[in-house]
Write a structure and sequence with these properties.
Strand content: 15-25%
Radius of gyration: 27 Å
Pfam families: Phage_capsid
Order of helices and strands: HHHHEHHEEEEHHEHHEHEEEHEEE
CATH superfamily of the largest domain: hypothetical protein PF0899 domain
Protein name: Phage major capsid protein
Distance between the termini: 71 Å
Number of domains: 2
Shape: globular
Number of helices: 12
Organism: Streptomyces mimosae
Helix content: 25-40%
Subcellular location: Virion
Structural class: alpha+beta
Strand order of the largest sheet: 6-13-10-7-9-8
Number of strands: 13
Main location: virion
Largest sheet: 6 strands, mixed
CATH architecture of the largest domain: 2-Layer Sandwich
């Protein structure tokens, strides 16, 4: 007889099949075909049957655990029927989570599994620990520190559903004003899709000998740093939902207007200082309301190139800040280094400027999970954790940003 965990894994497979059918139809902008409808209905029936079997099996497992429980067990067990306080339940979830990381879901009690298992048979990271990881990400990334962030619970969001607001002077009830809708008359079905970010951590036996406090610190530091590096690249040069990635603000898919540079690579005689003029033009190509909170983003090599420019008297045309902890400013605006932005070369997008908080948004979907791979690396004395974080990013106001693009060489 399959366990409740195995049944949940079967049900998760059915859910993925259902999602694949609907996503295919949505991507092709059509309804379900007759064959797809038949398959969809069959999977829905399977989902209902598996749900009933899971409920029956879990009741059996709970009864078996109750009979096996020693007499005199205290009332501070992980699931006390909802009588515990929020603090007690939070502690219980953390305890079940760390135990699950060490031994896997299959060896948890039904009460512990109920606290941390999702429908796909994965271990849910406790909400407070997930929040700590997300809070630490802006300190490790460039884009999150510049962009706006929003937590959501769905798989996708309509891109412009809450981005534009119309305002006007006077009282509406006396017809003293007419509001102009800032949305197009027939807005396109533009969606931003949440993507899956996966990571693999191999943890040695020594780490498992540590206390939960040390394991907690290891998870926060390791998870956050790994996610931060992958996110920063994707938010900058990600190629979009077709490739299961966020939309990067430096890509054509982001729709940010470009300003053409005056040189392909600024390598010609006397061309180098022209980069300063091009960056100044980039500022004034951005609408005034977005210049107020504007900042530059470019690779470190491009900043170095600027910092080495000299006038006819050998004086540097610009020098970065020499004060520790203070960000560099260029032409009065903060300058951020993002190493995934292209270096100076022909036909490249080498810098961006604008109000990134208004122009780019990061969406975090709650529900970070871990799957324990307790057999795959056993011979090496390690346990694997497959981490899944659901997140995406997209350009929400292209007009708030501008990109400096070099022409083709030759």
């Amino acid at each position: 007889m399959p366990t409740s965990v195995e049944l949940r894994q079967q049900r998760a497979g059915v859910v993925e099949s259902l999602r694949a059918i609907t996503e295919t139809a949505e991507k092709e902008d059509r309804g379900l075909t007759a064959e797809e409808r038949t398959t969809y209905d069959r999977h829905e029936a399977e989902f209902g049957e598996l749900t009933e079997r899971i409920e029956r099996q879990e009741r059996e497992e709970r009864r078996a655990a109750e009979l096996a429980r020693p007499v005199g067990r205290g009332a501070d067990r992980p699931d006390d029927g909802g009588r515990g306080t929020d603090e007690q339940r939070t502690k219980a979830k953390r305890a079940a989570f760390f135990r699950g990381l060490r031994v896997g879901l299959a060896r948890l009690t039904p009460e512990e599994r109920a606290l941390v298992e999702n429908t796909a048979g994965e271990i849910l990271v406790p909400e407070d620990l997930e929040a700590e990881i997300i809070r630490s990400l802006p300190e490790l990334t460039v884009v999150r520190g510049m962009a706006s962030q929003r937590s959501i619970t769905s798989n996708r969001v309509r891109r412009r559903s809450l981005d534009e607001v119309s305002v006007g002077w006077g009282k509406l009830e006396t017809n003293e004003q007419t509001l102009t809708d800032s949305m197009p008359d027939t807005p396109a079905e533009e969606w931003t899709y949440i993507e899956d970010l996966y990571g693999l951590a191999k943890v040695g036996e020594d780490e498992f000998d540590d206390s939960d406090v040390n394991l907690d610190r290891f998870i926060r530091d390791s998870f956050a740093r790994a996610c931060a590096e992958a996110e920063d690249t994707a938010f900058t040069v990600g190629t979009g939902h077709a490739n299961r990635q966020p939309v990067g603000f430096m890509t054509a898919g982001g729709g940010v207007p470009t300003v053409t540079a005056s040189s392909a690579d600024y390598a010609g005689t006397g061309e180098a200082p022209a980069l300063l003029d091009d960056l100044k033009a980039l500022i004034y190509a951005t609408p005034a309301q977005y210049r107020r909170n504007g900042r530059f983003a470019m690779a470190s090599g491009t900043e170095l190139f600027i910092s080495q420019l000299k006038d006819g008297n050998g004086q540097y045309l610009w020098q970065p800040s020499n004060q520790a902890g203070r960000p560099n400013t260029f032409l009065g605006y903060a300058l951020e280094n993002q190493e995934d932005i292209a270096a100076i070369a022909a036909s490249s997008r080498i810098a961006a400027f604008g109000d990134f908080n208004a122009g780019y948004r990061v969406y975090d979907r709650a529900g970070m999970t871990v799957k324990v791979l307790d057999q795959l690396y056993a011979e090496d004395g390690m346990i694997g954790w497959k981490i899944r974080k659901r997140v995406t990013g997209d350009v929400v106001r292209p007009q708030a940003l501008r990109i400096l693009a070099t022409p083709a060489g030759g």
